[in-house]
Description:
Number of strands of chain A: 0
Distance between the termini of chain A: 10 Å
Structural class of chain B: mainly alpha
Largest interface: A-B, 44 and 44 residues
Shape of chain B: globular
Number of domains of chain A: 1
Number of strands of chain B: 2
Helix content of chain B: over 70%
Radius of gyration of chain A: 20 Å
Oligomer: heterodimer
Shape of chain A: globular
Strand content of chain A: under 5%
Radius of gyration of chain B: 19 Å
Number of helices of chain B: 9
Order of helices and strands of chain B: HHHEEHHHHHH
Strand order of the largest sheet of chain B: 1-2
Largest sheet of chain A: none
Order of helices and strands of chain A: HHHHHHHHHHHHHHH
Amino acid sequence: MTRSLPWIGGAALVALPFVYRSPYPLHILIIILIWSFAYTSWSVMGRFGLVSLGHGGFMGIGAYVTALAWNYGHVSPWIGIPLALLAGAGLAALVAYPCFRFRITGHYFALVTLALSGIVLQVITATRDHTGGSLGYTPERYHGGNSLWALQFSDKTTWYLIALAVWAVGLYVWHRVDRSMLRYALEAISEDEDAAAATGVHVTAEKLKITVLSAAMTALAGALYCQYQMFISPDTVSGISVSLQMVFAVVVGGIYVSLGPTIGAVITILMAEVLRISFGTRAVGWDNLVYGVLLVLFIVFLPKGILGSLLDLRRRAGWISS
Amino acid sequence: MLGMYGMYFLYTVYHAPIGLAAAVCILGVGILGVMLHVLVIAPLLGAAPINQLLATGGVLFFLQSAATVLFGIEFKNLGLRLPVLKVAGMFVSFSRLLAFAAALIGMVLVYLLLTRTYTGTAIRAIAQDRQIMPLMGVNSRRIYLITSGLGGALAGLAACLLVLQYDVHPFVGLSFGPITFLICVLGSLGNFVGGFVAAFVFAEIISVGGLYLDLEWGYVFAFAFFIVMMFVRPEGLMARRS
């Protein structure tokens, strides 16, 4: 039963847009899926105590490299997105390698990556002649915004399926990491680096692997967001606030479970939307107000997040036999 | 941010004298610092340090949105015009001079407190080893409260000085917070002179970079400088060599 549950759920999600095709809920679902993927990418490394605040930077690079390559070089996103992934992974390696080599960990690692996402944000804003700066940037439409070559679709169902597929890939990667030797190595490292090194774990290499993987996935999320929204601005896809948004959503959802980041995305995005719809412009700030309180409460009382704590409860009640 | 709002309301709306407003703000933010400690940090003392960081981030979120809800997102300022001094062909705004002097005095006072009093010694000791201090007969809870209050009060002082130069809006804290963090680490945590020097270096990089290129490039250089310095001297600029 529990084994077939993911397949049933997956089939239901795939079938959804063919049964129910109202554009607004579909749009919300797509946004949730894209951000879920981004949050999952963060948690791939975040769960090993590698708290990076640089992921806003990687996401921004993913989005802007794809868009700039398309507008200036007329490079199809099919090539542009891999380029963006390479750029994100390259930047991650460039910063993370010295970090791990010189054993910059914990708070210090968080701060170095914080500076990194600050740099990406400021560079995008500073090169406003090419990137549009704070005003944002739009990839040029091609054939009325509906073309496989340009990866632009006017149909929401198509986007929903793409986002769903990418999100599923994200979960798959999470599970692959979960079952790999890498996981054991990284858990050992997060407990004690010296002890891990003494047992033959190549600390720098293992940490670098997971960081580059996570950064590339985040860049993909950025590129996807750019292609779907057809509008990016430095504040929505890059910078320190996006990094924090990722960390917070994952913490709320549950950092140690595969669907935790997804739950985090569902909760935070739905809450913002519901408050926005029910209160309109009077609700400016209310969503973050609730969010901030929840966050503090979660960190103090439920450090495993909503899903993590629920699963714990179930396990304690003995509902899961496997 | 709250200190700056406090100044704005006390001075502009309630017409309190500016000295009194500043005193109330410093005291008020100090009390908030203590509250933050009791409500959020204290339950997390045993948890991973990163959780404390995230929890205070949540508090920041909360306060920002509370300010948005209560005060709106308009930029507000004191409307106070302080004279501009002309010294040897340079124009120096009085408010910045005042900020510099007050910050310097505040720093010296805190330095004296930390090095010359019993409480200060206890604070420095507790920073080194949290478990041992209670055994040495120090009431660690009290020290935590004093430190939080002191930290809050200093933030209040900074707010009083910043509000003279900058407009207040709910997200004003974000433009100072991360940089404050970086500067502290750059100057090595807990090292006073280091923090002072690092603040100078950082400010110079931002200003000079901003002068020749855009202001954004100044920040880019400053952040990049921070990253490189972390690689070269992970203990901070002024770390004592052991």
